């Protein structure tokens, strides 16, 4: 299980990632790519907002855009390796 840390109101809140959460994030991101929320190399602001709301709806975890983006970027690096 991996983690990423984001500061919220002066406190550090860790995002705990297990296999299920990673699969949910990937599924949501793939759906948003197919819907055109990633016109180039990056998701649009609206795309990230939709990813965050769908992720919260499916997992009941309110991870920030930064936490989701950090995990997405780390997964891309792992995949390329």
UniProtKB/TrEMBL annotation:
Residues 17-80 form the Myb/SANT-like domain. It holds the Pfam family Myb_DNA-bind_3. InterPro entries: Myb/SANT-like_dom. This is Myb/SANT-like domain-containing protein. It comes from Gossypium stocksii. The lineage of its organism: Eukaryota, Viridiplantae, Streptophyta, Embryophyta, Tracheophyta.
């Amino acid at each position: 299980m991996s983690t990423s840390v984001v500061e919220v109101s002066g406190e550090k809140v860790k995002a705990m990632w297990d296999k299920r959460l990673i699969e949910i994030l990937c599924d949501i991101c793939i759906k948003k790519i197919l819907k055109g929320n990633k016109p180039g190399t990056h998701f649009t602001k609206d795309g990230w907002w939709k990813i965050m709301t769908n992720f919260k709806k499916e997992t009941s975890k309110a991870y920030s855009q930064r936490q989701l983006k950090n995990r997405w970027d780390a997964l891309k690096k792992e995949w390329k390796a």
